[in-house]
Prior knowledge:
Blueprint: H1 2-25, H2 36-45, H3 49-58, H4 91-135
Helix pairs in contact: 1-2, 1-3, 2-3
Amino acid sequence: MGRFWLFFFIADIIVTAAALISCLSTEEEDIRALPRIVWVIIILLFSPIGAIVWFAAGKARVSPKAGTWRAGGGFPEAARPGRTVAPDDNPDFLRNLDRQRAELEAAEQTEQEREMLRKWEEDLKRREDEIRKRDNPDG
């Protein structure tokens, strides 16, 4: 029987503390029926019933404020105010990265093509010199 009373006592302290914190941190326009100080007195004097009544009747369930965002407020993920985007989720960054990669590959390919063209020109010049020497043995 002692364990039951200990459990009830601890649960009472937890519920009362949670209700007190909730009451003190709730915006003034979200408190219903009574002023904040009256709710604090009810929560402290009539524990745990006062705490339960606070959660049931004292606190408004939905804030009447319009135009502010709260977690779960219905904004789509991309339209959340003040949202920072990681580089790997930012489509502009990824597009820029792809463009830079394509430019780098094009520059490398251009350099390879120039090297191949230089080798072809050397080979062509060598062949022309061989043909001239073969056609003109005197000179």
